[in-house]
Structure formats: C-alpha cells, structure tokens
Design goal:
By secondary structure, the chain is α/β, with parallel strands linked by helices. It has 2 domains: 4-15 and 78-215, Rossmann fold, CATH 3.40.50; 17-71. It contains 12 helices and 6 strands. It has helices at residues 17-27, 31-43, 50-55, 61-70, 86-95, 108-116, 127-130, 137-146, 161-170, 181-186, 191-196, 207-215, and strands at 4-7, 99-104, 123-126, 154-158, 174-178, 199-201. The protein has a 6-stranded parallel β-sheet with strand order 3-2-1-4-5-6, with helices on both faces. Strand 2 (99-104), helix 6 (108-116) and strand 3 form a beta-alpha-beta unit. Helix 1 (17-27) crosses helix 2. The radius of gyration is 17 Å and the shape is globular.
C-alpha cells in the first residue's frame, strides 16, 4: 500500500540548469567550465559544494547567497524551470487520493518560491525550515512525522543515492530513483541504485502507474 509520495526538489522537480549557470556567472567563469568541474566533483564522490572551492578557495555558500541577494541577483527559479512532468504527475497522484509532499535540502527562500507556484501538493517544507539537512536520519524522521501514514507506505522520490534513496530506505520508506540531472546520470549504474531503489524511473508520470499497481 502506498499512501504518500514525497519528492526531493533539485533535479527531481526543478531543472537547476539556469541556477547553476548564474553561479558560474557570479564566479566569473564560463558556464561550460563550471558545469564540467561540477560533474567531475560529483563523479569523484565529493560534495558538490567543492566545485565552488575549485574556482574560489574559501568560498562560503551562505555568505555568497546573501551577497547575491544584496546585489539584486538572488538564487531563484520559476514555473519555466519545473520539469515538464511535474504538474501532471503530482495532479494525478492527488486525484488518486495519495498524499503528496515536497521536502528537500533547500533554503527558506526556495520554500517560499515553491509555495508561490501553487503546485498540487499537501505539504511543502525545506531543510532550512526544519533546521536539519539530508541525509540526516532526523530529516527523514520528520518526513515520516509529516505524512499521514507509516513510513513503509511512503515513497520518497529523488535523484541521488547518498542524499535521497539510501537515507529514505534506512528510515523505512520505499524509494524511487529518478534518472535525471547530474547525479541521476552519473550514478545511474552504481550497484546501490539497484540494491536500494524499489523503482528506477525516468519520468515522474511513471509514478501514478506504480501506485495503482501497488494499491490494486
């Protein structure tokens, strides 16, 4: 039985191409160069934030986010940055009576943007709202607490093994790995994907069919 589906944000719902492009601009490096280093950092198993250290040693992401905001160039995204399957998949799940949540490692500002988009969801929260980040077990305990069903009836959907699938599985949830974005493609053949993902998908519109089959 699946009673709830909870989504990660970046590269699960939101295409971050534009956002990381603006970070390249802020750092004063070509976008292609930034993206290439970003991919290399992920492939080597490092935290993606190490990308910024390559171009500017000592880079403080929180301080630079504030500096961008003060300069009138805050991190942002909009309807056009949502993946094309987002609204249709979320709408269909809710029509099926499934509780839909969005919870990811995001800033308070990102949470405000998500809420302003009026997505078909029952719940939205961010790591900044909660004061705890993935992959912390406390984060996923809060996900379970927020949902109206037990952990084994929740499917957590994300593009990363380390931040999404593995910790959600450890928290007793079921998991769907979506193969898109840098992590989704770079890590697609890792054995952990097959070991820890209940489903591996390429499109969010696959989820209503999965739920229908499980709840039949």
């Amino acid at each position: 039985m699946i009673g709830a589906v909870v989504f990660d944000v970046g590269e699960t719902l939101v295409d971050e191409t534009r956002e990381y492009g603006t970070w390249a601009d802020w750092l004063g490096v070509p976008r292609h160069t930034f993206v290439s280093v970003f991919g290399a950092v992920i492939a080597s198993g490092q935290d993606y934030r190490e990308t910024f250290q390559v171009f500017r040693p000592g880079f403080d992401l929180a301080e630079e986010r504030k500096a961008r905001a003060d300069a009138g160039q805050p991190e942002t995204y909009s309807e056009e940055d949502l993946y094309p399957d987002v609204r249709s998949a979320l709408s269909k799940l809710r029509e099926m009576g499934v509780w839909v949540g969005i919870v990811g490692n995001q800033t308070v500002r990102s949470g405000q943007i998500l809420r302003s988009l009026s997505l078909p969801t029952d719940f939205i929260a961010t790591s900044d709202d909660w004061g705890v980040e993935k992959p912390s077990s406390e984060f996923f305990s809060k996900v379970v607490d927020a949902a109206p069903c037990s952990g084994d009836q929740i499917v957590y959907v994300g593009d990363r093994i380390d931040n999404d699938v593995a910790p959600a599985k450890a928290a007793g949830m079921r998991t769907a790995y979506i193969q898109r974005g840098p992590w989704g493609w770079i890590h697609r053949d890792k054995p952990e994907v097959a070991e820890l993902s209940d489903w591996k998908i390429r499109d969010l519109n696959e989820l209503p069919g999965i739920v229908a089959a499980e709840n039949d």
